[in-house]
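Reading group handout, session on sequence-to-structure problems. Before we discuss, look at one worked example. The prompt was deliberately terse, the way you'd type it at a terminal:

> structure DUF7691 domain-containing protein

The input record follows.
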Amino acid sequence: MSYSLSLYLVDLEKARGAIGSGDDKLRRMIGGRFKTTIAHADEWFDSEIKAGAPTRYDAIRAVIDGGPYDAAYGFQYGYAYQTICQFYGRFLDNSEFSPFRGDWLETVDQGLAELGIGVRVTDFMYGTVPSELPPPDHLPCYGEWSPKECAQAVTEWDATTKEQRDALDEEVLMAIESCVGWAREAQARPGWSVAGFGF
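And the output record:
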């Protein structure tokens, strides 16, 4: 079985602020911009929706309204929050992490550690959505790198030597370079973070 990470450069203050905001205009704007994506999501989860899960749009409505939630279908609210992050942010290149198998994230984390870089890609696969939302049973997983963590990761990368980088497996190094690229993009926008969803 393969997995995937979806990463966003986002102002998390705005994304988290949408939860429970009651902002009808925001809900309508999200529904309009992602109309096709929402329709595809409902097709994908058709059997769950027939069993009682909210549609993607209804889940977005619930997240923005701060409930009510049906905890049995927590996954839909996780995906709704992903849509909010997508609305407020920008998709980051995930080509090194989509798809991936086995312990790839742990392997990249080991490379990051060997270079003395503190961020971890497993944060995106083994975390959970903001505490205001009901936790999904399994997917999506969620994690984030704060502005401070992103700035620190760039500083730590810049302190590495060519010899250290050359000692790593080429594919691992390419993945780490992607991670540093995300961190640099976040650093270039003060207050912005990297938010990641694992599926």
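Points for discussion. First: Strands lie at 5-10, 90-92, 141-145, 193-198. Second: Residues 5-198 form one domain.
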